[in-house]
Every structure is written in C-alpha cells, then in structure tokens.
Amino acid sequence: MDDDEKGGFRGKDGEGKFGRKNAKYKKKVCKFCADKALLAGLDYKRVDILERFVTNRGKIIPRRITGSCAKHQRVLAREIRKSRSIGLLPFKVL
C-alpha cells in the first residue's frame, strides 16, 4: 500500500512528507570526540568549559542541542553536578 492509498501526507508532485524532498541538514558532531584535548581538560574545576553547557538559568543543555554523544553528555552532566555541589556553578539563577 502506498502512502497515497492510505491517505498519508504527500506534498505536491509526491515529494514525501509535507513536500520536503531529501531535506538535508548538517549532523552535529560531538565536540569532545572531535577534540580529545577538550575532553582531557573537562573537570569540575574548569568552570569556563562547563558554563558553555549550562543555560543562563542554570539548566544543563540537552544532547540534541549541544550535539555531544551520550557517553560524553553523561560525563559532562556528572562534572556539572560536582561543580554545583561545591559551589562553583549555581543550581539556579534567580
């Protein structure tokens, strides 16, 4: 059964879902996988690196936005939590 027979979403000229034909986007690359020196420098005391991955309200930025892989996002989140617990990073900004 085709999408047309099932009543699926087809754009003009049958260009796939919602009319996009081969919509390409640039895949995000993990900064830590690309630059091993950055990963070696990742520590709870390096607030300058950790602040890039925290919003202005104090939340950890998710993987889908930063582009980091799951392994390095876990390491990053752990170091941010360590830094928060000793007072280098805020839990939340008022």
Low-confidence stretches: none
Strand content: under 5%
* CATH fold category name: 30s Ribosomal Protein S18
CATH architecture title = Irregular
Tertiary shape: globular
Ends apart, CA distance between termini = 55 Å
GO biological process, one term: translation
Function: Binds as a heterodimer with protein bS6 to the central domain of the 16S rRNA, where it helps stabilize the platform of the 30S subunit.
GO molecular function: small ribosomal subunit rRNA binding; structural constituent of ribosome
Pfam families: Ribosomal_S18
What is shown here, in short?
Part of the 30S ribosomal subunit. Forms a tight heterodimer with protein bS6. The protein has 6 helices and no strands. The chain has 94 residues and is an all-alpha fold.
Features:
39% helix; 6 helices; 94 residues; ribonucleoprotein; 0% strand; 30s Ribosomal Protein S18; mainly alpha
